[in-house]
Design goal:
Length: 209
């Protein structure tokens, strides 16, 4: 009976539960989830402000733990490790969300159209010019959304954010040479979708190097 009590999931420590799960005891992970899911969800929910997004992020976190329990190592506090992992996922989600929102805002504010009209001298208030600007904004938003996430982020940080490659790399958590290559690939992708419109934008991004 004493041995049964010691091995009951509800009375085991987090470290013991992790060890048991690594040894093949699926009920150990269920107990970890029961103990910590609510605390992790509340924390992540506060960071992303979206219950649905928080739910997805927490579920993904526990699914990853199920697939790669070794990623947790042997933490002094499993809850603390889960909260850190949840925070990282929430911050990554917020970063992706900001990039997506920036893509829409950039197109709506006409920075593609503004760069083109600056060279061409279209008159403000010209109905034809405004219609062309709106069409270009729609194309720009679509083209930005079609880029791979890392390339889209690099282009937006450089052109819309006005950051240097070094600054953009600090924001994205990527080395300078990686940001340069992502930016170049992103511009190539935009040029394929939008044509010569990209050229004046690339010139704008040269400032601050």
């Amino acid at each position: 009976m004493r041995k049964a009590a010691e091995t009951a999931p509800g009375s085991a420590s987090d470290g013991e539960l992790l060890a048991r799960y690594r040894a093949g005891a699926a009920e150990a992970l269920a107990e970890i989830y029961r103990r910590h899911r609510e605390a992790v969800f509340v924390y992540v929910r506060a960071l992303v402000t979206s219950p649905a997004a928080a739910e997805d992020l927490v579920q993904d976190l526990f699914c990853d733990l199920a697939e790669r329990p070794e990623a947790a190592g042997r933490p002094d506090s499993l809850r603390a490790w889960l909260l850190v992992a949840g925070r990282n996922r929430a911050l990554n989600w917020r970063s992706r969300r900001r990039v997506e929102e920036a893509a829409v805002a950039a197109a709506e504010r006409g920075w593609f159209a503004a760069a083109e009209s600056g060279a061409g001298g279209s008159e403000a208030g010209d109905p034809a010019a405004l219609a062309a600007a709106r069409e270009l904004a729609e194309r720009a938003a679509a083209a930005l959304q079609e880029l791979p996430e890392a390339q889209r982020e690099a282009v937006l940080l450089r052109i819309w954010g006005g950051l240097t490659f070094k600054e953009a790399g600090a924001v994205a958590g990527a080395p300078l040479d990686t940001m340069v290559s992502r930016y170049a690939a992103g511009l190539a992708g935009l040029k394929a979708r939008l044509g010569a419109v990209v050229s004046p934008l690339a010139a704008r991004a040269a400032r601050g190097d």
